[in-house]
Amino acid sequence: MAHKATIGFSESENQLARFAKALGHPARIAILKQLANMNCCFCGDIVEELPLAQATVSQHLKELKESGLIHGNIEPPKVRYCIDQVNWEKAKKLILELFTINLSTL
Amino acid sequence: MAHKATIGFSESENQLARFAKALGHPARIAILKQLANMNCCFCGDIVEELPLAQATVSQHLKELKESGLIHGNIEPPKVRYCIDQVNWEKAKKLILELFTINLSTL
DNA sequence: CGTATTCATCGTACATTTGCGATGAACAAT
DNA sequence: ATTGTTCATCGCAAATGTACGATGAATACG
Fold this sequence. Notes:
CATH superfamily of chain A: Winged helix-like DNA-binding domain superfamily/Winged helix DNA-binding domain
Distance between the termini of chain A: 40 Å
CATH architecture of chain A: Orthogonal Bundle
Shape of chain A: elongated
Oligomer: homodimer
CATH topology of chain A: Arc Repressor Mutant, subunit A
Strand order of the largest sheet of chain A: 1-3-2
Largest interface: A-B, 44 and 43 residues
């Protein structure tokens, strides 16, 4: 018995948790910073910047894709990864909502 | 062989990932929302609000404590949990830095 | 002292995550 | 056709995470 997760929580709580989970590893933070800085990057450029094997980076990219925060376009023989602006803004909004709940009550 | 994590990344990347990881579960989001709304809560109040057993909630509270986002004060026979304002602001700042990297380049 | 309340921790079971080498798929160029 | 490049996926091993019941620790109350 393990892992109800998501069951019994609001959709925005689940969505925020999914975004946060995607941010919950330093490699993925580094990837997102790089993508945000350069707007778009080839997969190979990202692999070069990280202290991880290509297979591992590919896995982190997959998780970021599944969270919706990035997307990848095939441009043979490379793949160009970009921040997904829509979900990026959605994540920012959800996180800011959480962090600004109690500003007035202090 | 698994889990270098943290090794080879900057301290701010690691810190941000730790905060994000703490936010990466809907139960912990729900707990933080409750704490932020009421400023402080007794542990029992939190357990009542969540669809989880007391032991599970206690574990989530422990993780939030270890991330630094909250702290707990014993007020027998209860325990009062509060947002840790210092780390809360630190987390907010780190996350906002990430999300505002590329605003000008669009 | 015995009992009740509140919460943490232990032990267990199972799922997920992390990381890597090896392999596969797709395509370009020789 | 063979080769090289780029990247995804598979298969494996080990670490972490999630959830719960049971138990333990601390305190207050009778």
